[in-house]
UniProtKB/TrEMBL annotation:
SMART domains: PKS_ER. This is Enoyl reductase (ER) domain-containing protein. One of its GO terms (molecular function) is oxidoreductase activity. PANTHER family: PTHR45033, ZINC-TYPE ALCOHOL DEHYDROGENASE-LIKE PROTEIN C1773.06C (PTHR45033:SF2). It comes from the Eukaryota. It comes from Penicillium salamii.
């Protein structure tokens, strides 16, 4: 093992107190698992990007079981500062982040182990992982940008898979996954229809992505937004939907997807009510749509996403809504919980 001076780490653990207004996180200090196991890697974390999932878990809303008082966070970028003596794929100084499901390497595995749920997450100043679950991140990106890749980036990547230049994508909302999808869609030459509940956010996005123009719909003031999508696509429908609402929007999404198109089910941001799915089966059959479940992506997907970003030298700085110091993790999680962001909120160390 290479020598590293550090022997302890600071991390934010959940309090599991779900009462409104109480602290959701507690900063703790703990000894690092040293010496490193032969294939383990010690990473000095420089940035942790937050996701809706973090705010949801911290507030007790996660639909899947979580480790009691676990460490929050699943998106991190950091620098390799020590390696076990059998590590072969990484060297000191590499820019890396762990994949968010550490049992999802090739896509063929059957188990799962999500960071911040089945095992501790990455909201810490140092993390230790096996080299097999660490991915090299693009070197042209700064720490904050790179930290957005493992969850939001790879989810957007997986959700857009199979698209080709000139096709049309409907992207719902202006959250982190959606903004990443917008970036990738633009890089891939796709036409974008973006929805939001806020005219102000839509105006900002139209300004930011002025050429070629993006088409926009306010889904709050236009409850029949699917009709508007059909109008914008001359009655045909979009080729693909980045579906973020869940039961509240899924049937409408299917109704404005072209025959044979794809709906990538990513999120469940609306209040989930199975009664809203009464027309699900008939609509899928009628429109011959492929409904595709997205669960971030495998390590191979993460590597492909990083390769695309490196090849295009795309910057991600315009995805960043706000950077908080690491110590203000609680405020940052609350900011997300209130839905105040456009794009990514990141903790910087
Ligand atoms: N399956 C996966 O692999 C995966 C990975 C990451 C995230 N997710 C899930 O995907 C969803 C988005 O995650 P995120 O991190 O991007 O969240 P986020 O950054 O917190 O996004 C929140 C934004 O989504 C929009 N939104 C809220 N309710 C909506 C609704 N009913 N219909 C459409 N848009 C709505 C809002 O945009 P406006 O303010 O513009 O209206 C809101 O600001 C979440 O449900 C998250 O749990 C899934």
């Amino acid at each position: 093992m290479s020598d590293a001076q550090v022997t302890t780490r600071r991390a934010f653990r959940r309090t599991d107190d779900y009462n409104p207004g109480t602290s959701k996180l507690k900063l703790v200090e703990k000894t690092l698992p040293l010496p490193l196991l032969p294939t383990s890697v010690l990473v000095k974390v420089h940035a942790v990007a937050l996701n809706y999932r973090d705010a949801n878990i911290a507030n007790g809303g996660n639909p899947w079981p979580v480790l009691p008082n676990g460490i929050l966070g699943n998106d991190a970028a950091g620098e390799v500062i020590a390696v076990g003596d059998k590590v072969r794929t990484l060297v000191l100084g590499d820019k890396v982040g762990p994949i968010i499901d550490t049992e999802y390497i090739s896509g063929r595995e059957v188990g799962r182990s999500w960071l911040a749920a089945d095992e501790d997450g990455v909201m810490a100043d140092h993390i230790v992982f096996d080299e097999a679950v660490l991915c090299k991140l693009p070197t042209h990106l700064d720490w904050v940008e790179a930290a957005t890749i493992p969850c939001a980036g790879v989810t957007a990547w997986s959700a857009l898979k199979g698209m080709s230049i000139g096709q049309t994508v409907l992207i719902q909302g202006t959250g982190g996954v959606s903004m990443f999808a917008l970036k990738l869609a633009r890089a891939a030459g796709l036409r974008v229809i973006l929805t939001s509940s806020s005219d102000k956010k839509l105006e900002q996005m139209k300004e930011k992505f002025a050429s070629p123009p993006i088409l926009t719909i306010n889904y709050a003031t236009s409850p029949d937004w699917n009709q508007e999508v059909l109008r914008l696509t001359r009655g045909v429908g979009v080729d693909i939907v980045i579906e973020n609402g869940g039961t509240g929007s899924l049937v409408k999404s299917l109704k404005c997807t072209r025959r044979g198109g794809i709906v990538s089910q990513v999120g469940y941001l609306a209040k989930q009510n199975p009664m809203e799915l009464a027309e699900l089966v008939s609509t899928i059959i009628d429109r011959r749509v492929i409904l595709r479940g997205i669960n971030a992506g495998s390590k191979h997907d993460t590597e492909d996403c990083c390769a695309a970003l490196s090849a295009s030298q795309a910057s991600l700085d315009d995805l960043i809504d706000r950077i908080f110091p690491f110590e203000q993790a609680e405020e940052a999680v609350q900011y997300i919980w209130e839905g105040r962001q456009i794009g990514k909120v990141v903790l910087k160390l």
